[in-house]
């Protein structure tokens, strides 16, 4: 039997080997491998973002313009759900019993442990009533988020809207955005998103296998607080903006008003427009699709993106360039025989005094005069070639903000168009074109295209006698509770002598007082202006006006364009005058008649 | 029963108590995270387990009071009763997790297969301690195998394959009592070849390997006079193993689908990460995240927040691994090994064959449970639903192992008395 006793030893040895191998296996997965520990942390520790409220937006007078409105979601945890009385719930959620049951069934199908949203976009009041009514219910919770609230429901094209980030945003943000984040899509909300959104906080939490929160991680040592978005003040005069939008009802076009001394944009009307609150809350997607399909393109930000031939208002720019280059002086006379005689009567002109100097030329918007000036400019002997002359001319236009983005602080600005010598070479061949080939440029009907913002900027730099501050919306950012930090902007010098502006401005005053823009006369205020009637292939002429007031110490510069409305003096001039009077006097006094006529006009 | 001194084996009792307390601590760690920290809340897992520990203590004392002759004489009776109960369960049992292996007596669930282990061990010991019993006697061997297989078969019919496999551990007892050593060796080899075939999905290289191994053995044992006989023998053995290797994947078809997957996930849990592999993956993560010293008692987030299914029963070793780390896990392993070793020592030093054979049954059962259970949590053994003694929550298992161990303590303490045949 001793032989069998040995087997007892063999058995124990075998056992020992098995246990040893287990110990080794444990050593390999517990000590040698860090993969398991990493995965355990990944599954148990989750990071939750705390989204701070967005910064508020104020108008130029420090009155609240855009604020946040709490918006509640109601959520159910199907596993714990118990609602003794659903009558009030159904009444305030505007649901039928079947709807509610279906929503709960759907939530249960998703997960019985996790919270599912069954009602969104509840306001504070409804949420309060529901919380009271559901005091003895279980498995129901509310969560709060914010949506934008517009104290003045205007300026949708300025403000833009907020929406959930899409995959391309996330990709291009290099880790700044995560799925579910809200982000400004266009306008101020987009360009100043970083300032407005604040800094998200983080909370590390522990979750159980059903992803339910069970506690905080490491006594909140790694948690960070959320920082509220910064408030910002815009240069927008909300009342003026509302006024302008009302005037533009039923019309297509733009009004851009700028405070010349600061470059702050006072009004930035794009017509047709929409109510900014229609792109918040539950109806956002439906409304957005509706706006997107609208043939009048309300989402198209005309002051910024629509490029028009400027028409006669452009003669001011040409006059300034020619004066500064010494091509003409204020005493240079040209004759006009109802057309530009040096080019077979083209462009044509209306009947007025002849010969005439610059003041009358601007006052009567004489095509012949500016065609002659342009021709003399390009063919002047002080330049080696038409190319050099063209480049000099082009340099003036560039400094006056044409053909490039002005760098306003909302996205998608378009540069308009400023032709180059190369372009004409491509069209006509090298040395195959002269001034008469491109003579339409002299009266703003050629290859030059300007956005309404560029037009207003032209008015601004004339009002300022040769300089302008980069046009902008953002005026100041809130520092401490009651302190605003002003944002400073570059001043751009057009390098045109202030002396030459006197001639042009005097003429512009005459334009309003007794010229083409007589409908822009405001009692007690000297308005300087210039009309434009833009021929275009889309139908009726566009009605354009550019101006500022008061002429001596300008407080507002303006450009207005009403598409297919006809003569500039007929519509755009009185409309601009209404806006100017509203801004300067606070109300419509002398322009009551025009105001009523404009309100009812439809184009 | 007129002993003057308490002469029960203290080492065994201390190891037993240590393991039971450690086990309860671990159950508490898992249970308190979900059911509150009140220790004496008898409505929840850790409270209930406390009750079961009390019951086990009482039963252990009762067992120690029993006359060893009573155990000997009622062994067959107990076996018969166990078989009858097992059959009864087939008809009136309650189904839990797909296994119809539970009986409800007075509101308490009870698993008769646990009792069957004890009864089988006793009956086996009694039968094998007969005077003229011999392992080499075909009739005796058949009878012994029958005694083991009968309860195992009924348990398989209850759809509780895990518990049925436990009866395989009696093979160790048979080996100790003189079973030809080739039997366990061949069985181990077969198992190895089968697993390898599963792992490589029936690669032809296994067969090539077996043939080469056969050639080597043939060369080593070359005998000029008997080489024909040897060649035929070795050739037959090699062919048999090749057949097994070849047939393993076919044989898989006879298993239930969930058993097939459980075997396959042993090699690669990621083939079924949401199903059978899930438990293995989660269990390895929980244990692996423990590090050297663990996350600390009651600090195991992974087990606390129920990431490992069945963590209070079959997968309780995860909580050990996560909260006590490698050191704690090894200490638990060591405790089990020491207990098994001590029990083996008691068996070896019993004065009666009855006690020795019974003792080895206890040793084998304990070893099998511990190795299969811990092995599956660390991914070394396919998932087989059997509890970890003293650790897994549940009264049947605790009570069953308590009785198994204390019967042995009782038998060992009465080693002066002569019963049956001397060893």
Question: What is the compact description of this entry?
Answer:
The complex is a heterodimer of chains A (603) and B (423). Chain A is an alpha+beta fold. Chain A has helices at residues 2-32, 35-44, 87-93, 97-110, 124-133, 156-159, 167-172, 187-191, 193-197, 238-247, 284-293, 302-305, 314-325, 358-364, 367-378, 386-399, 421-428, 452-463, 498-514, 572-585, 592-600, and strands at residues 45-50, 57-58, 64-76, 116-122, 140-150, 162-164, 182-184, 201-207, 213-216, 232-234, 253-259, 264-271, 467-469, 474-478, 484-486, 491-493, 528-536, 539-549, 556-562.
Percentage of residues assigned to helices of chain B: 55-70%
Q: Which assembly state applies to the chains in this document?
A: heterodimer
SS-based class of chain A:
alpha+beta
Tell me the helix content of chain A: 25-40%
The secondary-structure class of chain B comes to mainly alpha
Q: What's the number of extended β-strand segments of chain A?
A: 19
How does the major sheet of chain A shape up? 7 strands, mixed
Instruction: Report the sheet-strand fraction of chain B.
Output: under 5%
Q: In words, what does this structure look like?
A:
The complex is a heterodimer of chains A (603) and B (423). The N and C termini of chain A lie far apart (118 Å). Chain A has helices at residues 2-32, 35-44, 87-93, 97-110, 124-133, 156-159, 167-172, 187-191, 193-197, 238-247, 284-293, 302-305, 314-325, 358-364, 367-378, 386-399, 421-428, 452-463, 498-514, 572-585, 592-600, and strands at residues 45-50, 57-58, 64-76, 116-122, 140-150, 162-164, 182-184, 201-207, 213-216, 232-234, 253-259, 264-271, 467-469, 474-478, 484-486, 491-493, 528-536, 539-549, 556-562. Chain A is built from 21 helices and 19 strands. In chain A, the strands form five sheets. In chain A, strands 2, 3, 4, 5, 10, 14 and 15 form a seven-stranded mixed sheet that branches. The mean pLDDT of chain A is 91. By secondary structure, chain A is α+β, with helices and mostly antiparallel strands. Chain B has 423 residues and is mainly alpha-helical. In chain B, 68% of the residues lie in helices and 3% in strands. Chain B contains 17 helices and three strands. Chain B has helices at 10-35, 45-65, 68-73, 75-92, 112-128, 138-157, 161-166, 170-176, 182-200, 204-220, 227-251, 257-267, 276-288, 301-304, 317-348, 353-377, 395-413, and strands spanning 94-96, 99-105, 108-110. In chain B, strands 1-2-3 form a three-stranded antiparallel sheet. The interface between A and B is large, with 36 and 43 residues.
């Amino acid at each position: 039997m001793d032989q069998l006793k040995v087997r007892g030893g063999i058995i124990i040895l075998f056992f020992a080997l098995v246990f040893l191998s287990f110990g080794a296996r444990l050593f390999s997965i517990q000590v040698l491998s860090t993969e398991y520990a990493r995965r355990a942390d990944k599954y148990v520790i989750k990071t939750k973002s705390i989204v701070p409220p967005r910064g508020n937006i104020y108008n130029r007078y420090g009155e609240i313009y855009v604020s946040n409105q709490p918006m509640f979601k109601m959520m159910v945890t199907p596993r714990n759900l118990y609602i003794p009385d659903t009558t009030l719930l159904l009444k305030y959620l505007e649901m039928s019993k079947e709807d509610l049951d279906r929503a709960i069934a759907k939530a249960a199908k998703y997960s019985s442990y996790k919270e599912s949203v069954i009602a969104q976009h509840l306001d504070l009041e409804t949420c309060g009533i529901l919380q009271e009514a559901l005091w003895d219910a279980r498995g129901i919770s509310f969560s709060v988020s914010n949506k934008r609230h517009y104290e003045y429901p205007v300026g949708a094209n300025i403000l833009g809207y907020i929406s959930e980030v899409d995959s391309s945003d996330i990709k291009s943000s290099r880790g700044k955005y995560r799925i579910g984040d809200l982000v400004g899509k266009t306008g101020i909300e987009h360009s100043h998103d970083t300032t407005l959104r604040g800094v998200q906080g983080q909370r590390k939490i522990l979750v159980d296998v059903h992803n339910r929160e069970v506690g905080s991680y490491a006594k909140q040592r790694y948690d960070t607080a959320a920082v509220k978005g910064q408030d910002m003040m815009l240069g927008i005069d909300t009342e003026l903006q509302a006024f302008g939008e009302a005037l533009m009802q039923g019309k297509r076009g733009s009004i851009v008003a700028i405070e010349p001394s600061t470059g702050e944009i006072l009004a930035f009307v794009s017509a047709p427009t929409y109510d900014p609150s229609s792109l918040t809350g539950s109806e956002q997607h439906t409304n957005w699709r509706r706006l997107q399909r609208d043939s009048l393109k309300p989402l198209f930000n005309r002051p910024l993106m629509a490029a028009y031939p400027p028409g006669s208002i452009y003669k001011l720019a040409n006059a300034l360039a020619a004066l500064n280059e010494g091509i003409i002086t204020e005493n240079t006379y040209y004759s006009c025989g109802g057309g530009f005689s040096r080019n077979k009567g083209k462009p044509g002109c209306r009947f007025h005094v002849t010969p005439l100097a610059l003041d009358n030329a601007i006052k009567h918007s004489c095509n012949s005069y500016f065609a002659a000036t342009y021709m003399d400019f390009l063919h002047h002997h002080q330049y080696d070639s038409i190319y050099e002359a063209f480049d000099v001319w082009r340099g003036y236009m560039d400094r006056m903000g044409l053909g490039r983005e002005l760098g306003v602080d909302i996205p998608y600005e378009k540069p308009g168009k400023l032709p180059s010598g190369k372009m004409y070479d491509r069209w006509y061949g090298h040395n195959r074109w002269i001034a008469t080939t491109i003579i339409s440029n002299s009266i703003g009907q050629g290859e030059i295209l300007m956005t309404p913002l560029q037009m207003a900027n032209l008015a601004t730099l004339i009002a300022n006698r040769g300089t302008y501050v980069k046009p902008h919306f953002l005026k100041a950012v809130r520092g401490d509770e009651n302190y605003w930090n002003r944002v400073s902007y570059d001043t751009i010098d057009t390098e045109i002598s202030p002396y030459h502006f006197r001639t042009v401005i005097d003429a512009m005053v005459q334009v309003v007082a007794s010229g083409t823009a007589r409908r822009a006369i405001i009692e007690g205020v000297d308005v300087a202006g210039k009309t434009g009637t833009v021929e275009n292939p889309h139908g009726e002429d566009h009605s354009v006006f550019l101006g500022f007031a008061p002429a001596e110490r300008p407080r507002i510069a303006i450009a207005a364009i009403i598409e297919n409305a006809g003569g500039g003096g007929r519509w755009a001039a009185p409309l601009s005058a209404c806006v100017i009077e509203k801004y300067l006097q606070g109300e419509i006094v002398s322009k009551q008649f025009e105001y009523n006529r404009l309100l009812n006009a439809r184009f | 029963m007129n002993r003057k001194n308490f002469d029960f084996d203290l080492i065994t009792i201390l190891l037993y108590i240590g393991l039971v307390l450690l086990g309860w601590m671990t159950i508490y760690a898992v249970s308190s995270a979900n059911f509150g920290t009140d220790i004496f809340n008898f409505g929840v897992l850790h409270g209930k387990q406390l009750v079961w520990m009390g019951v086990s203590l009482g039963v252990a004392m009762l067992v120690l009071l029993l006359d060893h002759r009573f155990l000997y004489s009622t062994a067959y009776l107990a076996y018969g009763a166990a078989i009858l109960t097992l059959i009864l369960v087939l008809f009136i049992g309650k189904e839990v997790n797909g296994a119809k292996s539970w009986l409800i007596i007075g509101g308490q669930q009870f698993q008769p297969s646990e009792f069957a282990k004890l009864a089988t061990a006793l009956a086996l010991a009694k039968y094998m301690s007969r005077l003229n019993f011999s392992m080499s006697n075909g009739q005796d061997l058949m009878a012994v195998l029958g005694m083991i297989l009968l309860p195992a078969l009924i348990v398989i019919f209850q759809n509780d394959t895990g518990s049925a496999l436990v009866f395989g551990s009696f093979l160790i007892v048979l080996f100790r009592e003189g079973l030809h050593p080739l039997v366990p060796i061949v069985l181990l080899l077969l198992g190895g070849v089968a697993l390898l075939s599963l792992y490589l999905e029936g690669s032809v290289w296994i067969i090539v390997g077996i043939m080469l191994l056969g050639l080597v053995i043939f060369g080593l044992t070359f005998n000029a006079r008997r080489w024909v006989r040897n060649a035929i023998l070795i050739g037959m053995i090699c062919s048999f193993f090749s057949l097994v290797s070849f047939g393993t994947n076919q044989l898989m078809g006879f298993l239930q689908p969930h058993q097939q997957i459980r075997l396959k996930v042993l090699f690669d849990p990621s083939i079924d990460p949401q199903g059978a592999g899930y438990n293995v993956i989660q269990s390895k993560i929980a244990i692996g995240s423990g590090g050297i010293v663990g996350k600390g008692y009651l600090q195991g987030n992974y087990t606390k927040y129920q990431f490992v299914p069945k963590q209070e029963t079959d997968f309780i070793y995860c909580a050990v691994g996560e909260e006590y780390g490698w050191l704690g896990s090894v200490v638990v392993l060591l405790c089990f090994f020491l207990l098994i070793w001590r029990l083996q020592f008691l068996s070896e030093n019993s004065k009666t064959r009855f006690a020795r054979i019974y003792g080895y049954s206890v040793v084998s059962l304990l070893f099998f449970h511990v190795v299969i259970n811990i092995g599956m949590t660390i991914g070394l053994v396919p998932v087989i639903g059997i509890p970890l003694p003293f650790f897994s929550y549940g009264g049947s298992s605790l009570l069953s192992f308590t009785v198994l161990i204390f019967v042995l303590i009782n038998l060992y303490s009465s080693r002066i008395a002569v019963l049956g045949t001397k060893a």
